[in-house]
Fold each of these.
Amino acid sequence: MYALKTGVIRCLDPKFMLPEGIRLRRATPQDCDIIVHHRRCMFQDMGNGTDAELNAMVAATRPWLLEALANDSYHGWLGD
């Protein structure tokens, strides 16, 4: 159903195709700030945590996520 070629996933089933011009790709260490920002916004939108708690979560998560993306122990996908 899916094919991985050069780090990009392509869906081979037409009913699951992405909109024209959008592609999925694996997250890289360069995406760390985007992912951390998304996580912070997600928790904020759910009403979980004060600004100080969310800022502390970002500060704690960023170094871990950067290393995990670099050593391939964290896998994420982003749409471009």
Amino acid sequence: MEATIGDKICIHGNVVGHADRNGEIVEVHGNKGEPPYLVRFEDGHTGLVYPGPDAVIVPAQRQRKRKRLASRPLLWADLPTAARRTNRGDLRARWSHGSR
């Protein structure tokens, strides 16, 4: 498992009823991005984490891409293929010209 500063970490609850814990990696103490990580959790708590098999790291690069995609207008090509298949040509014409 490798991480860099700014990556998000999600530690899934391993017992029924325990919520997931989400946080941001603020320091990497291992070599080449390896654990342990200093993590600032959503509740403000900061702690040293040695992630187990129930942890997932979301790279900061992927987070930026999601934000960038969310900030641009939705295009016809963004729709799922099934939604683009239609017998009504007027729907595609209205969508591609921007009048909804």
Amino acid sequence: MLRTRYETSGTTRVYHIEGAITTIEAGDLKQEVRAAIRVGMREIHLDLGKTEFIDSAGLGALVALHKSAIEVDGALHLGALQFIVYSVFELTRLHRVLSIRDTVPELEGVEEA
């Protein structure tokens, strides 16, 4: 089961994601983030520090979200990946395509949901 919560400041949104991003959850995550992009969020950060597993559908969802963000001159950043999750990005070479950072930003003037 995937659990998400987010914080927003201006046009930046940080999603904190817990659990596994698999075939079942990937579509919901993609829908939620794309909805944020449609309402004007331009900097999307996914905190994957508590994400334990990601499968090919999850990887596909992140690539699709990356493309959605770029289409509106935005950006998708992944942060705080656990070693096992980061190794999947290395094996698939997606670490060369997606923005992966050691941390996620702490927002000021935050609206949480």
